[in-house]
Amino acid sequence: MGYTSWQRLWRVELPVALPVIVAGIRIATVTVIGLVTVTALIGLGGLGYLIVDVGYRRFFLTATVVGSVGAIVLAIAADRGFVLLQGALTPWARRRTGS
Hints:
Oligomer: single chain
Largest sheet: none
């Protein structure tokens, strides 16, 4: 009469948990982009190379601005991409517009 354990997982539990799963992936992605940018401070390269090595050490402001803006744009683009993915995967969770 009821769902099997697999049916319950796919029809009830996963659809309810999917917005939270995608939100966790969004947070992790933006955090990783930020951390990869900071890795240049400890000499491991990464996205922060332009900011730290070229910008600060060589006193070249343009490279600092380009590296900073590039990291920010990449983080925002990744976040927006996951927002669109979440909207596509969970059409039932969209906010209703007021009348």
